[in-house]
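Q: What structure does this chain adopt?
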Amino acid sequence: MKFAVAATLLATATAFSINKADLGKVRYEIRDMKIRPFQHSARKLKCVDRKTKICLTAATAGAVAFGIAIQPAMAGNVENGEQIFNANCAACHAGGQNVIMPEKTLEKEALEQFLAGGRSEKSIITQVTNGKNAMPAFGGRLDDDAIADVASYVIASSEAGWE
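A:
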């Protein structure tokens, strides 16, 4: 994440038309402060170098924008995932249950215990795409985006507790 902050700052800094030597100072200041996105308010941040007028506020704003753009934690769209899940998965997994193998539910603990690779979107995507045991493969029926949306929905629902 430090790299993302530094990269965003460097990209943002080019708009200020400053010397490249000054950018190195800013990068090291950011690294030494160990800034974590979403944990610092803009009011608490101070300018690194008044001469170049590059503020950490801009770096934080860039990091937030960069983080929102890539969204690594939730790759898919949860709302779309719910619709796709209801149309394709709910026959066996309504309410996060499993009518074929009752112990292998979509509850958080069961996903951690039984899902190959543990409870993660990547593991769910693999299982939905390829199928396993009694579960059919959906790779030929659903596109990659739809499967990613379902995985996001399953992770979010297991975290919140299925209704």
